[in-house]
Amino acid sequence: MSVEIKILKEFTSNQLVLVCGLPGTAYIGKLSVDYLIQQLKAELVGEVYSKYFPPFVVIREDGLVELLRNELHQFKDESGRTIVFLAGNAQAFSPEGQYEIADAVLDWAINNGVQRVYSVAAYITERPFEAPNVFCTTTTLALLEEAKAHGAHLLDNGVIGGENGIITGLAKKKNKEAVCLLAETHGYQAPTGEYVIDPRAAKAALKVLTSMLNLKVDMEPMEKQVVQMDEAIAKLVEIERRIREEMAGSGKSKKPAYVT
Amino acid sequence: MEKETWIERCGDAELIEPIAVVGSPGLKSIGKLVMDSLITKTDATKIADLYSIHMPSIYETKPSYAADPTLLGTGGVIIESGEADFPKVQFYACSNPSLIITKGYHANFEGQYEVAIKVLDFLAENHVKRIIVAAGYGSKDKKICCAATSKELVAEMKEKYSIDIGYKGPFMGFSGLVFGLSKLKSMEALCLFAGTEPMENDLEFPDKEASDRALDTLNKILGITK
Question: What pLDDT sits at residue B67?
Fold first, then answer.
């Protein structure tokens, strides 16, 4: 089992669009796509399993065991267009695994007539900002102009790590239109080294994404998440500041315990 | 090598709809201890060994089940009772009750899925439909809780044996993956977790008392009275 795509029910599509948002820096892709799945009540139609996911399972609160996996959720809009969201609780760890999984999902989408691939990822910056910008890279100039018209800026240089980036690159190799939207984030990390979710960046990415997809989505729940996360980050920053102060203070008062 | 993971049969047993019981040297070695006790108690005989180039004889990770992509371990042989052999997963069988007892071994980061899938393929070939995993979970409560592949099985455990759910979080290593992947292979699986207090400096240090509690519960489920 390098990669196994398990389709749960008969799947038919019309003008298929694939939207990828897997967990990565600040969980911007995952937050954005999970939010759309929830708001649009997109239906789970497929599961992606792979030996390249980290080797552990998760026991859920209800006592059921869950493998790490990616999921395909389907939404049919009023015009009859099919949007499939690629979401999940993990990404492959290695580049080999990331290529294999992205390739398998993309081939599945191509076999089902995919017209365009969107992905959402993070753009880490130290630049102070009021509202995060959304950058983009596209496979065609026409798509770049389209993304810019919806509020995205061209990404001149940079790296998009992981499956959200690889799927864009593979789409180009397979002559499919693709755009990757990258929302600015400071990529704030908790003291444990884990990235803290950044709903503000996800909200910015969603603004461009929903505009490009012509989707109407209630953003109020996301606004609440932004406020809650701002408060949580402010607390974390304050705790870190106090720890730094205490460490600096204790250093001053201590006599050196060694001689050189 | 031609094959990365392979099985060598070394015995036969007449088994009718066997249940597979699975354990490995995880937290406080509870799974391994339960399998050792069960093999002795049922006079089970060895039917097969599973080998894999992804099984280190010396782990670089501690505990052994915490797979790390940068610490793949060292290959080699393990000498037991004067005999050298590669690290292996061992399958034992007994006919009353009809069981395949699986003594697991943790592969490294690259091989954990492959080994678990091969184990499940072997169990499926031997007509296993239900798997029971024994493992430990970090808790001050000296109790047994369960997890399963279906809500129905969770309900069955509560109704028949008064065993409730109680652990949530990651389940690493051989037994976790066999447990999780069983559903993909159309088998139902149940895990019995025995509460045990982890020792920070040696997470695999054996907890006989916790493994005895898991074994007692397992015996009730399997109807073993001797």
Answer: 85
Which residue do the tokens 């798997």 mark? B131
Of the candidates A1, A60, A94, the beta carbon closest to that of B168 is on A60
CATH code given to domain B5-222 = 3.40.50.10900
Does B173 lie at the interface with A, CB-CB under 8 angstroms?
A: yes
Asked if the structure places residue A125 within a domain, the reply is: yes
Count: domains in chain A: 1
Residue A61 domain boundaries: 3-221
Distance, in Å, from the CA atom of A67 to the CA atom of A55, rounded to the nearest integer, reads 9
| This prediction's pTM | 0.86
**B182: DSSP letter:** G
B136 CB neighbour count, 10 Å cutoff: 29
- CA diameter of chain B: 49
Element housing A243 (H / E): helix A220-253
What are the b/e assignments for A29-51, b being 16+ CB within 10 Å? bbbbbbbbbebbebeebbbbbbb
Nearest to B147 among A50, A51, A59 (CB): A59
Q: How far apart are CA B60 and CA B43, in angstroms?
A: 34
Q: Is the peptide bond before B63 cis (omega within 30 degrees of 0)?
A: yes
Domain ranges of chain B: 5-222
What confidence score (pLDDT) does residue A251 get?
Answer: 46
What does DSSP assign to residue B68?
B
Strand spans (E) along chain A: 3-7, 17-20, 43-50, 56-59, 65-67, 70-76, 82-88, 116-124, 134-138, 153-154, 177-185
Q: Provide, as residue numbers in chain A, all residues whose Cβ is less than 8 Å from the Cβ of B59.
A: none
- Tell which residue, A15, A5, A19, A86, has the closest CA to residue A48: A5
Q: In a 3-state reduction of DSSP, which class is residue A250?
A: helix
The token pair at A108 is 């599945």
Q: What is the pLDDT of residues B173-194, one digit of tens each?
A: 999 999 999 999 999 999 999 9
Residue of A51, A59, A68, A69 to mutate, testing the B interface (most B Cβ within 10 Å of its Cβ): A59
Q: Distance, in angstroms, between A162 CA and closest chain B CA?
A: 16
E strand or H helix at A28 = helix A28-40
Give per-10-residue mean pLDDT for chain A (260 aa).
Answer: 91 94 89 94 96 94 96 95 95 92 97 96 87 94 96 92 92 96 83 74 95 93 82 71 64 45
